[in-house]
Design a protein that fits this description.
By secondary structure, the chain is α+β, with helices and mostly antiparallel strands. The protein has ten helices and ten strands. The termini are far apart. 29% of the residues are buried.
Length: 319
């Protein structure tokens, strides 16, 4: 093993022993002196930093080269010199430290750095790419499962779990939102199921859910199936007037679809809808908003169904 002429070599009985121990270990091993010059590295480290074997660059030069060439270690920064200074401050701040690094070739390594008195900064890296990939896959599976848990299987809308998550997000965002709730259900849906069967009822729910989603052109409109034939749309930062337009668009789309219904006067599937709007300041205020929308829905049904009712008591008659 050779050293650069301007480097202060560690005790001869220590470094050769380290070299013999790690040369063929399979781990990535390096040793820097107090001036951040590379004293020793095995083949794995030279491969990692994309430098010629046997050379002894300084650690800052290694980082600059990797950054400039886009190879070796990945460094995410717009200012390499500031990044180097910040990293240097960490390198010898502790006797022992552990961290993860990634390389341009796709590998991940778990690195440890140990300050050894009268020797230098010893680093050892273990390839954790496979473990990292497994962890990433597990996280993706978990997120997929979470999405599925918050999605109604039949209609692919959000479910009550999604509503609870949205409730928490609205309260935790740190600013008050004007939220308009549009609650709706299918007129005379029980007779529909009793006459045509639950399989046909499920198909009707799926068709209506698709129609509802197709009428939503707002960036922050969240359709939810509350259960049975009851649906909810929460529209963030949307005035009541805009929500009324959305409701009318849904109503017209359902009419145009002309889904047969054997138990209604028109012979077609229709929706009753209730609107309410309010400012969300906490979880209780959202509950009050949903209650107001539900009351409006009840008013629409009491007034003859197939209509849109607002919280002020005005309702649009069937036409």
């Amino acid at each position: 093993m050779t050293f650069p002429s301007n480097a202060s070599s560690p005790p001869t009985h220590t470094l050769p022993g380290i070299a013999q121990l790690f040369d063929k270990s399979g781990a990535t091993v390096f040793l820097f002196d107090d001036q951040e010059r590379l004293l020793y590295a095995n083949d794995q480290y030279y491969d990692l930093i994309c430098h010629t074997r046997g050379t002894h660059p300084t650690w800052p030069d290694i980082m600059r080269d990797n950054y400039a060439r886009g190879q070796g270690l990945i460094i995410e920064t717009d200012d390499i010199e500031s990044w180097i200074q910040a990293a240097l401050a960490k390198r010898r701040s502790q006797t022992y430290r552990q961290f993860e690094i990634d390389a341009w070739d796709g590998r991940w390594l778990l690195m440890t750095e140990t300050l050894i008195p009268e020797v230098g900064l010893l680093g050892i890296g273990v390839d954790i790419t496979q473990a990292k990939n497994i962890t990433t896959a597990l996280k993706e599976e978990y997120q997929n499962a979470l999405v599925k848990a918050e999605t109604d299987v039949l209609t692919e809308m959000g479910n009550r779990r999604a509503l609870e998550r949205l409730r928490k997000l609205l309260v935790s965002k740190g600013r008050y939102h004007q939220v308009t709730a549009l609650m709706m259900d299918i007129d005379q849906f029980k007779p529909y199921n009793d006459t045509l069967g639950h399989l046909q009822g499920d198909l009707c729910l799926q068709q209506l859910a698709q129609l509802i989603r197709s009428c939503l052109r707002l960036s922050e409109a969240y359709p939810i199936r509350l259960g049975g034939d009851e649906f909810l749309i929460l529209m963030l930062d949307a005035p009541l007037s805009l929500a009324q337009q959305v409701a009318q668009r849904i109503r017209n789309s359902v009419r145009e679809s002309a889904i047969p219904h054997p138990a209604t006067g028109s012979g077609l599937v229709t929706l009753s809808m209730g609107l309410a709007s309010g400012r969300i300041t906490d979880s209780e205020s959202l509950s009050s908003l949903l209650k107001a929308a539900d009351d409006s829905l009840y008013e629409a049904k009491r007034s003859g169904r197939d209509r849109i009712s607002s919280p002020r008591g005005t309702s649009e008659s069937q036409s």
